[in-house]
Design brief:
Strands 1, 4, 5, 6 and 7 form a five-stranded antiparallel beta sheet that branches. A two-stranded antiparallel ribbon has the order 2-3. Strand 6 and strand 7 form a beta hairpin. It is built from no helices and seven strands. By secondary structure, the chain is mainly β. The chain is about 0% helix and about 50% strand. The chain has a single domain, classed as SH3 type barrels (Roll), CATH 2.30.30. The N and C termini lie far apart (about 35 Å).
Length: about 70
């Protein structure tokens, strides 16, 4: 079975930014922190609204995480 191709675009954090395992702000979803001006690979075209925020999906290493889109440029 062939996987769908995923394309990524480079985005930069505009502040220190928490990345999470789900699109939800609580201590259980916190996976780590990105420093200001960190360049991340964001899934092109992926955007969701949840918990009062717009979220982007990013890839760190071999895993995907979620960040509030307002802090990515």
């Amino acid at each position: 079975m062939e996987k769908n191709a995923v394309s990524y675009i480079a985005k930069t954090t505009s502040a220190r930014l928490n990345y999470r395992t789900r699109c939800e702000i609580c201590s259980e979803t916190l996976a780590g922190v990105l420093e200001k001006n960190a360049v991340v690979k964001a899934v092109d075209g992926w955007e969701r609204r949840a918990c009062g925020h717009v979220w982007n999906k990013i890839k760190i290493g071999r895993r995907h995480y979620f960040v509030c889109a307002e802090w990515l440029e």
